[in-house]
Specification:
It is built from 6 helices and 2 strands, in the order H-H-H-H-E-E-H-H. The radius of gyration is 18 Å and the shape is globular. Helix 3 packs across helix 4. With 162 residues, the chain is mainly alpha-helical. The chain starts with 8 loop residues before the first helix and ends in a 7-residue tail after the last helix. The longest helix is centred in the last third of the chain and has 29 residues. Helix content is 67%, strand content 6%. It has 2 domains: 115 residues, Winged helix-like DNA-binding domain superfamily/Winged helix DNA-binding domain (Arc Repressor Mutant, subunit A, Orthogonal Bundle); 38 residues. Strand 1 and strand 2 form a beta hairpin.
């Protein structure tokens, strides 16, 4: 397997993403009693409305077991509810936000909005830098949407090595 070079753009993005996630946990999610994964699920449900666990998994990646654990935690905390789908397939469960889940989502979303504005002003991005960053982020997200699961299966060296 080829190791990413120290100065590789994707390696730098990956390391920066890990740092951002750690800060996001401390600044946004822990203060409102959420993990990153649970916050992302609440965000998805707020943005897309009711979803199946499989749809959530497709957006987030990870494993069915991990998503199931997160959904159980959110349901236990009365932040989501599970309902039978109205379609022909009654085995399909839909997950949606409860009122409490919407309030929790709004709490971290407001925290993110206010903090992000402050941080962006301190970073002093030019309009060109801002647009360039948006294009790069969009390109990476589009790639991940299409290829992340297949890529992990192909190059993750520790997968399944327990």
């Amino acid at each position: 397997m080829q190791v990413l070079e120290e100065n590789s753009l994707l390696r730098q993005f990956g390391m920066t993403a890990a740092r951002i996630q750690a800060y996001a946990n401390r600044l946004y999610f822990e203060p409102v009693g959420l993990t990153t994964s649970c916050a992302i699920i609440l965000h998805l449900l707020n943005h897309h409305g009711s979803m199946t666990p499989t749809e959530i998994l497709k957006h987030m990646g990870g494993t069915k077991s991990n998503i199931s654990q997160r959904l159980r935690t959110l349901e236990r905390d009365n932040l989501i509810e599970r309902n039978e789908n109205d379609s022909e397939d009654k085995r399909q469960i839909m997950v949606s936000l409860t009122e409490r889940g919407l309030q929790r989502h709004n709490a971290f979303n407001n925290l993110i909005s206010s903090t992000t504005k402050q941080l962006e002003s301190e970073l002093e991005f030019t309009k060109e830098e801002h647009l360039a960053c948006q294009r790069v982020i969009e390109k990476i997200n589009n790639f991940l949407d299409l290829h992340a699961n297949e890529l992990c299966k192909r190059i993750c060296p520790f997968k399944g090595s327990k």
